[in-house]
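Task: sequence design from structure.
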């Protein structure tokens, strides 16, 4: 099969999200060929370059989502807004544009849960108006282009203004002002930029057998259009929930409340449409699955596929091998407020009162930026206050039972050594998606104490102790119980390792997607034959229009349809046409497209 892998700020960029997972998927399914369609998120990401791609990756097409970020706020951009639409489109296209933007923005301003009796000017549900506007704008961009400039035009601002003031609109949106209209128009143009890409061609997404979006939201937009224009099945994988991440990031965004409300509605409606159109949705855990069901994903489309992780680097850590002493607690992760190290330090104060010889080793670095450094400094100061340096006698240097360390030093050269440095691994987060550090601890055969957030309970099963978040006393009691019971620690560690090897390996992840790909290919309808000439209608489905040898790895790649030929003639794949006419046989593996 030929898979179109869709990413947003991810693979193949060296610092992209889900980079490792996508790379393992591409390398682990050698029977398939992959085309990459990637949206980049920053100039820095593009400057970092790509990872080394395997030979089974065909073409790579990228598009930036980060350009013109400040144009909407500049005076010159404001002047461009005044005349952009008139220059871009003729009268007919202007009417199309106005109708589609009015439908989409009206749905966004009305909200996700709008019903026909809401009293608005348009009595249709918000989801129907949203999809009409979305696909109408996509078709306009395909037919006439010019969509980015039109979306940033004064006409768009006036449409947003009218939608915000329409009856039935929420109070927050009705309070929008002119700066809010301009800011929302700029954000909307960026969100809809995938509609204007040149990927929707017969040799682009129209040539793949399956679109696999590595996340929902913007990354899945090209997959929605590939399905609409070419009938290509869409598979959506979400290890996190983009909509949830958007909600969590919104308070930090430099946007007004009306803009944040409209963006939340937009992403909610987009998520619902992605889940409705996808043939299969694969959440990375049940926590993600609940969010997907909340926004309209049908249960019969959902298949939970846990992220796969490499096990080789943890193989040397033996079960019950407490290199740092059985009285040592270990915490590993990025140091940020969501990890709630403050609660962990307070809990460790209770642990020390019960077990005076206990130690806490914190391995990690702060998240980039001033906030991460400030939080780390606050944690260090609290640790110094709660645990002053102690010395055994008057001649010994004082020692602190809490240490902040980074992996890579002489004592802890790698991640596996960090997990081996203690008898119990602790996770104290208040916000968590899929807890990678917890799975790694399980691979190392470590007993764990963790807070009940995100997918923690699902990951741990019965192989660890789970306590409520923001409860230092419960966290301390669980740690003390395990520190005092070495036999229980050993049992939990062995069970955790067995569970991780059963559920969270790369092999199980690849096996799941191998079956899903074959399932989708087996149920996909046959493609309709394209017209031979402008007056010749499309014929019936031709399931064997593409020769089987076209799918052999290393062979020349076929076009999505047969080349045009006179009426009555036999169609031949485009790759079989050489300078001297139709080739007598398949070309060698080295003659394929680069």
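Answer:
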């Amino acid at each position: 099969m030929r898979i179109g892998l869709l990413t947003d700020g991810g693979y193949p960029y060296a610092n992209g999200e889900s980079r490792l997972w996508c790379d393992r998927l591409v390398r682990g399914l050698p029977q398939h060929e992959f085309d990459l369609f990637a949206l980049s998120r920053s100039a820095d990401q593009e400057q970092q370059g790509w990872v080394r791609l395997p030979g089974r990756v065909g073409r790579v097409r990228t598009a930036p989502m980060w350009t013109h970020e400040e144009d909407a706020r500049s005076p010159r951009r404001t002047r461009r807004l005044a005349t952009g639409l008139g220059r871009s489109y003729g009268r007919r296209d202007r009417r199309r544009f106005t109708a589609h933007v009015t439908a989409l923005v009206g749905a966004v301003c009305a909200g996700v849960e709008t019903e026909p009796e809401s009293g608005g000017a348009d009595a249709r549900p918000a989801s129907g108006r949203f999809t009409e506007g979305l696909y109408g704008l996509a078709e306009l961009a395909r037919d006439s282009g010019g969509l980015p400039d039109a979306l940033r035009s004064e006409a768009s601002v006036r449409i947003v203004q009218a939608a915000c003031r329409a009856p039935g609109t929420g109070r927050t949106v009705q309070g929008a002002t002119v700066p809010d209209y301009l800011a929302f128009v700029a954000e909307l143009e960026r969100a809809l930029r995938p509609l204007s890409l040149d990927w929707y061609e017969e040799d682009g997404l129209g040539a793949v057998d399956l679109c696999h979006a590595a996340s929902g939201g913007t990354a899945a937009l090209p997959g929605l259009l590939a399905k609409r224009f070419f009938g290509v099945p869409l598979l959506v994988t979400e290890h996190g929930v983009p909509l949830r991440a958007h909600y969590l990031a919104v308070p930090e965004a430099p946007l007004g409340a009306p803009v944040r409300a409209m963006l939340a509605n937009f992403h909610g409606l987009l998520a619902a449409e992605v889940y409705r159109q996808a043939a299969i949705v694969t959440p990375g855990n049940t926590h993600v699955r609940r969010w997907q069901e909340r926004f309209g994903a049908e249960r019969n489309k959902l298949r939970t596929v846990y992220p796969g992780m490499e096990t080789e680097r943890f193989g040397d850590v033996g079960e019950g091998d407490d290199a740092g002493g059985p009285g040592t607690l270990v915490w590993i992760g990025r140091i940020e407020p969501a990890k709630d190290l403050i609660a962990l330090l307070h809990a460790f104060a209770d642990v020390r009162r019960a077990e005076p010889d206990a130690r806490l080793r914190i391995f990690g670095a702060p998240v980039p930026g001033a906030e991460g450094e400030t939080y780390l400094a606050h944690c260090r100061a609290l640790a110094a206050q709660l645990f002053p340096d102690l010395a055994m006698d008057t001649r010994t240097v004082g020692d602190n039972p809490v240490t902040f360390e980074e992996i890579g030093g002489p004592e802890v050269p790698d991640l596996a050594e960090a997990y081996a440095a203690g008898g119990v691994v602790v996770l104290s987060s208040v916000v968590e998606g899929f807890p990678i550090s917890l799975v790694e601890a399980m691979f190392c055969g470590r007993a764990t104490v963790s807070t009940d957030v995100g997918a923690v309970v699902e990951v741990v099963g019965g192989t660890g102790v789970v306590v409520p978040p923001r409860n230092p006393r419960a966290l301390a009691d669980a740690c003390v119980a395990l520190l005092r019971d070495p036999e229980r620690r050993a049992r939990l560690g062995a069970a955790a390792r067995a569970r991780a090897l059963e559920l969270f390996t790369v092999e199980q992840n690849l096996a799941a997607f191998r079956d899903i790909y074959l399932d989708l290919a087996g149920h996909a309808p046959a493609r309709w034959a394209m017209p031979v000439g402008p007056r010749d209608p499309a014929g019936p489905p031709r399931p064997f229009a593409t020769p089987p040898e076209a799918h052999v790895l290393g062979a020349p790649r076929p076009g999505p349809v047969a080349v045009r030929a006179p009426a009555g003639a036999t169609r031949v794949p485009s790759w079989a046409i050489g300078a001297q006419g139709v080739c007598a046989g398949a070309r060698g593996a080295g003659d394929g497209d680069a």
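The first strand starts at residue 2 and ends at 8.
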